[in-house]
Amino acid sequence: MTDHPAEHAAWGEPDSTTAPAATAPVTPADAADAARLVAFGLQPKLQPARDQEYGELLRRYREDPPFARLADAVATGLGLVVLEVSPRAGMAVTAAEDSLFAVRMGDYARRAATDSTDRFLHGLAHLAVAALAFPRPEDLADDGYIGRVTVNGVDAFVRQACHRLEERAEEQGENTDPATDAPGLEAAWRIWARRSSTGATKDARRLAGSTTGIVAKAVAFLTDSGFLQRTGDDSGGTYRTTARYQLQVRDMAGSAAMAELLDLGVVPVTDGSATLLPPEDTDDLELAADAGLPFHS
Amino acid sequence: MTSPAVTDTAPPQLSAGPRPAQGPAADEGLARRLRALACTAPLHDLDVRKANLAGEYTVYAMAEVALSAIDLVTLNMDFDTGADHEQIVARLLPRVAAQAPRRPAAEHERVARWVLENLINVGSVDRGFRAVYGTFAPDGTYVRRDYDFKLLEEVPGYGGGVYLRTTDEAVNVLVGALDTDVTSAQIAAEVKLEVLINRGRLADAQLAAEQARYRTVQYAETLRKALDATRRNVRAVDWLRAVPDMIAEALDHVADRYRHENAILTNIRKARDESEDPEQKRRAAELVDIVKDCIRRHTQLQSRLLEAGPLFRAEQDRQAFAAPTARAGLDLYGQLLAPLLPLPAERATRVTDAFFARGTGLRTPVSVRVGDLVDLLLTPPVEREHLGAEMPEPDLIATPDDSRFSEEQLASAMDLLDLPSDAPRRLSGLLAEARLHDPELPYLVALLAVHAASPPVGTAYRQGEEKLLFAVDDGTELDDEEFGGADLIVGTALLDAAGMAADRTEAA
Fold first, then answer.
1. Neighboring chain A residues of B350 at a CB cutoff of 8 Å
2. Minimal Cα–Cα distance from A82 to chain B, Å?
3. Residue B350: inside a domain, yes or no?
4. Which residue windows does the record flag with biased composition (Low complexity) (chain A) (predicted)?
5. pTM for the complete prediction?
6. Is the ipTM of this complex over 0.85?
7. Same domain, B70 and B118
8. What range does the domain containing B249 cover?
9. Burial of residue B490 (number of CB atoms within 10 Å: 0-12, 13-18, 19+)
């Protein structure tokens, strides 16, 4: 299993010299196999368990280090980052920054390219889906965890968070209405809160510009990326996470967004165990007293 | 379709004075009133814009239709969803028709729909309104601000339907000042209603009853929001005091109102049956319907309240007794989403952009050949499928055995809890003893003890058990390094198995 991009630097070394003497030098056939494995990785919805050749190549990757390095090299050369190679996730590769395979916001949603509000809403929808799919730090860290999200659930969850901020601002007597000539200074939560959550349309489809429409677009896109699997139609659509999504969020997206946040000078302080915000005044590490007996005085 | 920008023309009078900054308090009050004023603007705007519609629509009083639409939505808001579009249009029609009886019915419907769509403001991307008003910042500078609000909002309902709800702004400004203390206002209304009925003044009584129903709806709405939050995350809600208090209060309220309204119902029925005047009879019959609706809403509320406790306990089991963290992960909500939301949009977008760029995965780019393009453009469009999308084949994954505790642990915990009936023990002692055996065991013991607080008496009775584990809270705080809460007294109750068996045979 290769996690470190640094290791990919090894691709420059000729494999024949570093490989143990017992293994044969790399042949064009090996290179073809390595490239085929990467090609399998580029089809994120393909399950290793369903394709015999894929499964065999994966086994070869894990058992044959020179082959593994070759496959890593092919991936790196194509502008891909290898997240994990395992039977559960397959050859989990993702696009490196500025790679040919990277998804651009403008291609993702046309309005988002020109409208900064829509751009933010689409980005936030993706973050919220991840936050609800992995509500606690343990869930993101636990390889066996399978998260479940619904479209309406994600919207309600963000609205709840926004509502809490609104209440807090009201308590402090703050006027959160933004100045007319500086829309960029409007607090982020207000943008989600003021967008309608759904809307009737003439052809009974979901209103694309509503927040549930935006979340639905995000989960549909993630499903195409092999990150979610649709399990039902309740609550606007229910979805289950895959191993690849967990890897992507944990190793790529989470840390990148975190770095950006720190760059803005915002240092979120948590004790590493806290989950969705508990009420401010309770001791987080303790079970609530009378917790099993909510009706006792 | 225009979104009314109202106050651009009217700067507040304060700015004309010699000392512009009047102190934040005066200005805040002004801002509040300006915002309240802004909420009425869309209604006035309807009457202004009706002249621009194709056709002769000046005969309709649009603001009146709009206000009654808001009333209808408020009244028809259900506990779970909201009011149905079509139903609201249908109920608006009689009023619209009364305004211009000679016009065709199709036009009436057009007017009703036009008003409803404008209250939602279908044309704007937010489906809301924006008004601009000015305030003085603490440093004395004059700042123009945007106030965004909605009157009717569309919410998702069951089965993908879209329903209407009135927003707090609309209820507060347009339905009446309802943000008073719900309970006391309700009591006042009920008393008034009773007095009015006794005096036979049914017209006023109907008004009072309708007001009482508005309050009932609002009470239900408050509770729905609180329960929703509970469902989402146990720890985000204060189950120590706030929620139990609220539930107890609401249950009292329901019990109280239910009694009260049944009494009123009897009264009105009497008025209805005894009255000679047909108008009186009709009003009384309407009142019966309103009060019946109130009672229905209370029953609905009550069943929700009773579900809250079990729901909390199930979530508590799932969340609090799960295995501890193997390694620290990133807390997506606490460390990313929550700190991001209060930021200015411009800066927050940088973070969401970073997440988006690396969190969406990859797309294999499509390369186009001219040959394919020609084929593609010349292919006739595919007929729309009427059967809907193909069902995706489910990917089945064997669920791993994720039991937190082993059979042996359960056995030793049961051993520990096998207490003699005359010697109950404190939970703290049991936990300490369990800890000596196995560091994991206290969790299982605590879980079993908490469950014993609500012992399955009915099951034990049916199965003829001879003893039953129970736990009682006598108010002592638990002093433990891992657990908090009440130091329960755990004991075994001996049951009269023979007597119960006899009872059962008798009952059968």
1. 260, 263-264
2. 12
3. no
4. 14-27
5. 0.59
6. no
7. yes
8. 182-319
9. buried
